[in-house]
Give the backbone structure.
Amino acid sequence: MAKKRIAVLYGGKADEHSISCISTAAVLNALDADRFEAIPIGITKRGQWITDGEDPRGFVMDGRNLPTVRAVEGSRPVVLDIGAGSDGFFARDPDGSLVSLGHIDAVFPVLHGPFGEDGTVQGLLEMMGVSYVGCGVFASAACMDKHFTKVLLQAAGIPVAPGVMFDTRDFDAAHAFKPDAAAMVDRVRRAHLPYPVFVKPSRGGSSFGVHKVESEGDGSALAAAVLEASHHDWKVLVEQGIDAREIECAVFAPRAAAGDEEPKASLPGEIVLDHADGDTDAFYDFDSKYVDAHASHAEVPAHLPEETLQRVRDVAVRAFKAVDGAGLSRVDTFVNAAGEVMVNEINTMPGFTPISMYPKAWEAMGVPYGELLTELIEGVL
C-alpha cells in the first residue's frame, strides 16, 4: 500500500509559535512511517512558509530556550498554487524555479493560536480543496475567540464563566489605560463579577497575557492587566474567578463532519499544580505548562465521582457539537464543589507536546499516541 503524504504545518505567527514546534516534534516522531510520509512545512514568526529548514523532529523545550522556525542555509520558500489543489505545493529553488513537493493527500495543521487555529489556514485549505485534520473554518474561528465561544454556548444552554468584554481600542493607550481605570472597575461592578477576576486576551492561548486581579476596586491593577492582555488582542475578557477545579476533556470525532460518527469524549483529566513553594493561589500559567517540568502533573481520570466525570463528558460533547466541531478538540471546564459543570473554553487544535492533556487523556483510554495520530489522519483521507 502506497504511503499517504501528509503535509505537517508548524510554527506560525502566533504567540504559541514555540509550542507548535514542540507539538510537531512529538507528532513527527510518533507518526506511523509505514502508513505516512510526512512533509514538514514550517511557518516563521513573520509568516513565511519554508521547507528543508531545521529538522523539527529535534525540537525540545530546554528551559527557556524556545524553538523557532527560521530560514537557514538550504531552506526554500514554499509557494502555493491555490487552483492546483493537492498538487499545488511547491518549493522555490535559489534560481527562482518552482519544484513540486508532490501530491499532498492531507494536511495536519499543528498550529496553535491566531493565523493557524483561528480558521485562516483552514479557509486556505478549503479554497484549495485539500483535506485537513481538525475543525473547519467556523468552529476554528469561533473557538479562537473566547467571547464568541461564550455566546454560542450560552445560546445552546451550556453554562459558561460570567464575564465582560472590553474593546481596548477605545482606551487611552498613550497613558497606559490609566484614565480608563475607573470606568473598567465600574463595568466589572455592574456585571456583578466577584473578585478575584481573570483578565485575558479573547483570542489568545497558552496563558499568554493572562493576569489575576485580586482586589475589588483596584483600578490600577485592573488597568495594568487589561493593558498587558491588549498587547495580544484588542478584545480583552474580564472573567469571574470561579471557585472550582479545572477539568479538561478530550473530544475525538474524525468523521463528525460527514455526520457518520458521534463525537467521543475521553475520561476527563486534571492538571494538578505541585505547589512546592506553598503558593496555593497560583494558577496554570505558561511556565507551569511548558517551562517548569516540576510545576504540575496530569491526572487522568480526575479524582471526581463517576457521575461528575460523566457529566463533564456529556457537556464536552454538547459543547463540541454546539460550535460545529469536527476532528478533535479539548474542552476545558470548571467543576465546582456541588458537581456543577461550566465550560471555560474550547481548543480546536490542542497541544500535542509529550505532556499535553489531549494525547494523555486518550492514552489513558487505551489509545496510544501514534494510533491517535493515525485515526485523526485517516479520518480525513
